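Fill in residues.
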């Protein structure tokens, strides 16, 4: 029998979490705090918002609700992906109300019929011919920065934001060697969790809870396996991501009901990759879980202090998906169970944190990444 030991920590000196206390409860249910978090995290960070494959043809689009903001992501007739604030330059009316669609060649305001091209230019504005100092070229849609990496679409609402590579290049460089841009979505699950978005990030960042909450997961990758990496960047700044690996026990191959899979490994998988799952949280909203045979993505969007929308996607090699009898359910169904187990305990934590008795607790030795995220939150909110 294997004796449980603490995960191996790689890189910087660790131990700060052994002296620290957790965040106070008010940070998980205050409306004022959430508004500040939306401004400082979700409106000033690179957000992973989807796959470029979802918007293949000119006029393909999706809309995103991020707090009170709505963003339109659309592929133009020139073939380029762009993102815009989803509002008319005339009276601020919401332009596109559908969550996604195709063949949107002209974006027409439902109020006064101002019209925009799929490249964001104002092409029609009735009864503006007599306006003084009015030029259509000055009133295109407000742009939002958009970049792609690994087949993913990323946006940033901060006009002064550094490039994606400058901002989270440390994360990107760890996975550049995998041709992730070739993967395709094989399944998707959406959830609404009655818990604060930070509780979900914290839950993803530790496996201290895995033995009692996730017996199916713990059987395949014991909670004490693997390495915790990447939880400091330098003496002044914490990284905007953290993560590590969990290792398979025995001869297991993937996180499935049996621990085995008939799917071949993803391209680029070698050596240790075949015996591990990479788990990385990219703050504030991405959970990146790379298995030997598939990639699972969670995206978290706060709806209220105590409600979070979660998108969960499963990506596979298209060659594997084209094989007869391809069936992703062995991975999708076990992760749906694990997700729901997590959502349940996160909702219980949310309820408990409203208690007048809750003033904060202590981290266990298994939770350095939780502490690192919490410290990042405190620093960005200016509370330290």
């Amino acid at each position: 029998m294997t004796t449980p030991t603490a995960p191996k920590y790689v890189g910087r000196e660790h131990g700060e979490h052994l002296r620290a206390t957790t965040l106070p409860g008010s940070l998980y249910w205050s409306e004022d705090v959430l508004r500040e978090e939306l401004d400082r995290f979700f409106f000033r960070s690179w957000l992973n918002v989807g796959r470029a494959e979802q918007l293949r043809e000119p006029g393909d689009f999706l809309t995103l609700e991020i707090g009170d903001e709505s963003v339109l992501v659309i592929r133009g007739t020139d073939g380029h992906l762009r993102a815009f604030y989803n509002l008319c330059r005339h009276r601020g009316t919401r332009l596109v109300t559908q969550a996604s669609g195709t063949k949107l060649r002209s974006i027409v305001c439902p109020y006064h019929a101002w019209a925009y091209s799929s490249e964001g230019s104002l092409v029609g504005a009735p009864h503006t011919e007599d306006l003084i100092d009015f030029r259509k070229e000055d009133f295109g849609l407000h742009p939002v920065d958009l970049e792609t990496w690994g087949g993913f679409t990323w946006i940033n609402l901060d006009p002064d934001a550094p490039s994606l590579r400058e901002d989270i290049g440390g994360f990107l460089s760890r996975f550049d060697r995998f041709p992730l841009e070739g993967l395709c979505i094989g399944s998707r699950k959406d959830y609404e969790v009655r818990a604060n978005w930070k509780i979900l990030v914290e839950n993803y960042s530790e496996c201290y809870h895995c033995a009692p909450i996730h017996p199916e997961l713990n059987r395949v990758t014991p909670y004490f396996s693997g390495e915790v990496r990447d939880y400091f960047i330098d003496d002044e700044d914490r990284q905007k991501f953290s993560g590590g690996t969990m290792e398979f026990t025995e001869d297991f191959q993937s996180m499935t009901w049996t621990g085995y899979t008939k799917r071949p490994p993803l391209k680029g998988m070698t050596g240790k990759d075949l015996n591990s799952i990479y788990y990385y949280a990219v703050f504030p909203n991405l959970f990146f879980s790379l298995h030997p045979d598939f990639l699972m993505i969670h995206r978290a969007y706060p709806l209220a202090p105590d409600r979070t929308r979660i998108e969960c996607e499963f990506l596979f090699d298209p060659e594997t998906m084209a094989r007869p009898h391809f069936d992703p359910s062995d991975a999708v169904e076990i992760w749906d169970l694990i997700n729901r187990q997590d959502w349940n305990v996160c909702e219980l934590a949310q309820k408990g944190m409203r208690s007048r008795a809750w003033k904060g607790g202590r981290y266990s030795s298994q939770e350095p990444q939780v502490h690192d995220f919490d410290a990042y939150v405190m620093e960005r909110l200016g509370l330290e």
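Residues 24 and 360 are 5 Å apart (CA to CA).
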